Structure to design on (152 residues):
């Protein structure tokens, strides 16, 4: 991965961000920012003040820079085994599509099946999964949900 194609963050030993740059020509680190952010309510006011960048875009990095200046920007490295894709081009979207298709085909499961996740975490029971599956019964997804309750 070419870090200069993304936002790049420099991370201190305690997880605090030391610097963050949007698409730098000479990145200060090899840590690309994948675009997964969690903010508190202050983000609304910060976002209202953002001005377009030289590229004419509102940059999320501007929000992150504001948190950085306040010493409130923390970074967590994505653990190994997690797949992340840039979906900014048609080619990248096709790459993601093929990746997901292969996982689903090889593992006989659906990626991101909210009903299955809720069921396995104990948030909903078999009856609720069956009820939800009825909306999709004419599709393989609905059949997958129904099988989930019958085989588990």
């Amino acid at each position: 991965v070419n870090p200069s194609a993304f936002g790049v963050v420099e991370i201190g030993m305690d997880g605090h961000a030391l610097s963050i740059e949007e698409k730098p020509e000479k990145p200060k680190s090899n840590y690309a920012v994948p675009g997964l952010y969690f903010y508190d309510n202050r983000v609304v006011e910060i976002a209202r003040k953002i001005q377009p960048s030289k590229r004419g875009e509102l940059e999320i990095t501007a929000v992150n820079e504001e948190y950085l200046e306040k010493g409130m920007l923390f970074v967590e490295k994505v653990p190994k085994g997690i797949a992340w894709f840039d979906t900014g081009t048609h080619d990248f979207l096709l790459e993601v599509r093929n990746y997901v298709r292969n996982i689903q085909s090889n593992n006989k499961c659906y990626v991101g099946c909210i009903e299955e996740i809720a069921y396995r975490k104990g948030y909903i029971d078999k009856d609720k999964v069956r009820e939800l599956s009825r909306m999709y019964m004419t599709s393989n997804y609905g059949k997958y949900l129904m099988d989930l309750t019958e085989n588990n």
Q: What stands out?
A: The chain has six helices and three strands. The longest strand covers residues 17-22.
